[in-house]
Specification:
55% strand, globular, mainly beta, seven-stranded mixed β-sheet, 115 residues
Length: 115
């Protein structure tokens, strides 16, 4: 499966952005999907995931501010990000696979939150 992330950009603290990740292939609905991020000088970290059945899980740092969702008819997973903080600045990657391991990765989209 190929993944194409989009929707990043520059936003002020407190603002919102919605990231999208479009997937190719006819098996999208069978994959767990996730968002990860990597800030400058830091390791990649988990942000949120949604299972093939629609259950979601979040990192503590984004819980209550970010929402992951999926539209299987459009082969797309979304990340709605509200109340953004400067520490949310990172390249955001979408991934497909299983919660136990994600094997397919998109190219990343940059989110910059200014203070």
């Amino acid at each position: 499966v190929q993944l194409q992330a989009s929707g990043g950009g520059l936003v002020q603290a407190g603002g919102s952005l919605r990231l999208s990740c479009a997937a190719s292939g006819r098996t999208f609905s069978s994959y767990d999907m996730a968002w990860f991020r990597q800030a400058p000088g830091k390791e990649r970290e988990f942000v949120a995931a949604i299972t093939w059945s629609g259950s979601s899980t979040y990192a503590d740092s984004v819980k209550g501010r970010f929402t992951i969702s999926r539209d299987n008819a459009k082969n797309t997973v979304y990340l709605q990000m509200n109340s953004l903080k400067p520490e949310d600045t990172a390249v955001y990657f979408c991934a497909a696979g299983r919660l136990s391991g994600f094997h397919y990765w998109g190219q990343g989209t940059l989110v910059t939150v200014s203070s």
